């Protein structure tokens, strides 16, 4: 199989086109060249290349003298580069060519005068790799600086065991160039990204991306995202906390105006076959966003499986589910509002959703109208719900007094429902009532609630308002 290799045009950035992330749109131009085709045998030969070091090209490695030119010379020498455990001061970005590995241990410390848009720029091509490198932007005063930025189509990119921290913009950004190129099988593995002003790990326009075993803390916006039509992204076994704010909140054009926000894990609605599995997410209450969910509402949704995650202290909903989604075997604790939400803020159609075997504990803070599972609310046009199954979940509140108002709610009287089934759920340990089902005034209703274990209210029955 042939592989892509090539170079980018002038160093510039195209910000992701989503309305929440259209940062600096129009302010920065983009020019990328597609790569020539080379044989994969060239990649195998590249793996056998000898290595060099920045010191062999004149670097001091003491963290005090600017070593930018020496590291660039090493990276363009055609062999792999070993940082040899030293600390290097850099004042400009470092281009990483295709087929070259930059390995640590070793530190890249950005100088106070650093004004480029990223510390390491991965160029288009096959089999670039960054491993065991620490990037520290603590001294940077420029407002838009990322740690690692991928600028061009790549195949078999690997970024692993790196520590990226103290930056005003993104940590690791595998950019899709606003749709100009794609990435085949990028691997973002076992990195630590902390204290960044925007997104910690962003992977766009990818096929078969693996984002695994990373640790993320203190981000100004989303912690981990799959975006821009990514296909089969696997987001697995990552640990995320937003319990503390970053030192530098990005406040440029397209930002939230210097206010923290963001999901702990998010994906775009045009992504396909998304898997979000076995992640641990904790505390984005200050951000006021969902724990795991879709970054933007849309009219069509690719398939997604959100399974076996632990989501604690989400700032809004623990998990926000939309169409073509399976939400299964998750533990959700202490979400500020709902544990699991199935709906669209802007109205539309949601179909083919399964919410099954989740354990939802202690949702809601002070309000009595919080739900373990909420289905069908909308802030905009009417919502149509089709083929939704809510099965074998447990909703409980073990606080004294209990504050979770309801186990399950179907609450939008502006929505229509067809094929909605609520069955086998344990809803007995909530504050007010196990279920509240409000019939729609819309064009129709077709839902049933059977075999659920319910709280006995003062009348001795579950509070269920039948469809009207």
What does this structure look like?
This protein starts with a strand and ends in a 14-residue tail after the last strand. The chain is built from 2 helices and 45 strands. It is elongated and about 75 Å long. With 468 residues, it is mainly beta. The chain has a 28-stranded parallel sheet that branches. It has 2 domains: 1-46 and 112-302; 317-468. The longest helix is centred in the N-terminal third of the chain and has 8 residues, at 68-75.
Provide tags for this entry.
468 residues, mainly beta, 2 domains, 15-stranded parallel β-sheet, 45 strands, 41% strand
Query: What's the rounded overall pLDDT mean?
Result: 85
Low-confidence stretches: 1-46, 457-461
| Terminal-residue CA separation | 61 Å
Based on Cα principal axes, name the global outline.
Answer: elongated
Give me the Rg, rounded. Answer: 24 Å
Q: What is the beta-strand fraction? A: 35-45%
- Please give the count of helices: 2
Number of strands: 45
Q: How many domains?
A: 2
Helix content: under 10%
Q: Determine the structural class based on helices, strands and strand pairing.
A: mainly beta
């Amino acid at each position: 199989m042939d592989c892509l290799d090539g170079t980018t045009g002038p160093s510039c950035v195209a910000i992701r086109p989503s309305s929440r992330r259209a940062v600096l749109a129009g302010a920065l131009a983009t020019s990328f060249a597609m790569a020539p085709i080379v044989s994969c045998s060239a990649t195998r030969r590249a793996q056998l290349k000898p290595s060099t070091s920045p010191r062999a090209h004149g670097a001091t490695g003491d963290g005090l003298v600017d070593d930018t030119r020496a590291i660039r010379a090493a990276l363009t020498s055609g062999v792999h580069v070993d940082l040899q455990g030293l600390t290097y001061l850099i004042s400009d970005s470092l281009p990483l060519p295709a087929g070259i590995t930059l390995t640590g241990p070793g530190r890249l410390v950005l100088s106070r005068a650093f004004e480029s848009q990223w510390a390491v720029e991965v160029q288009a091509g096959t089999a670039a790799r960054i491993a065991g490198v620490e990037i520290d932007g603590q001294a940077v005063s420029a407002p838009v600086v990322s740690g690692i930025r991928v600028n061009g189509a790549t195949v078999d990119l690997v970024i692993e065991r790196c520590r990226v921290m103290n930056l005003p913009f993104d940590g690791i950004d595998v950019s899709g160039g606003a749709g100009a190129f794609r990435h085949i099988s990028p691997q973002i593995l076992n990195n630590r990204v902390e204290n960044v002003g925007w997104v910690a790990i962003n992977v766009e326009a990818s096929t078969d991306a693996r984002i695994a075993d990373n640790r993320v803390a203190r981000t100004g916006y989303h912690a981990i995202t799959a975006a821009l039509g990514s296909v089969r992204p696997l987001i697995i076994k990552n640990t995320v906390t937003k319990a503390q704010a970053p030192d530098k909140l990005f406040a440029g054009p397209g930002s939230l105006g210097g206010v923290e926000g963001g999901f702990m894990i998010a994906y775009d609605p045009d992504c396909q076959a998304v898997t979000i599995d076995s992640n641990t997410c904790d505390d984005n209450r200050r951000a006021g966003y969902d724990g795991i969910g879709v970054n933007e509402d849309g009219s069509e949704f690719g398939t997604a499986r959100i399974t076996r995650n632990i989501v604690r202290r989400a700032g809004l909903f623990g998990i926000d589910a939309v169409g073509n989604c399976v939400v299964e075997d998750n533990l959700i604790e202490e979400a500020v509002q709902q544990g699991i939400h199935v709906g669209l803020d802007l109205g539309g159609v949601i179909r083919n959703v399964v919410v099954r075997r989740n354990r939802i504990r202690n949702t809601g803070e002070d309000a009595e109208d919080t739900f373990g599972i909420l289905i069908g609310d909308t802030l905009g046009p009417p919502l149509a719900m089709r083929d939704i199954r809510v099965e074998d979940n447990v909703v409980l509140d073990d606080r004294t007094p209990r504050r979770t108002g309801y186990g399950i709610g179907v609450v939008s009287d502006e929505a229509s429902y067809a094929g909605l089934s609520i069955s086998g759920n344990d809803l007995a340990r909530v504050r007010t009532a196990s279920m509240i089902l409000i019939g729609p005034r819309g064009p129709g209703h077709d839902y049933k609630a059977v075999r659920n274990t319910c709280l006995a209210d003062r009348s001795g029955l579950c509070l269920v308002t039948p469809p009207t």
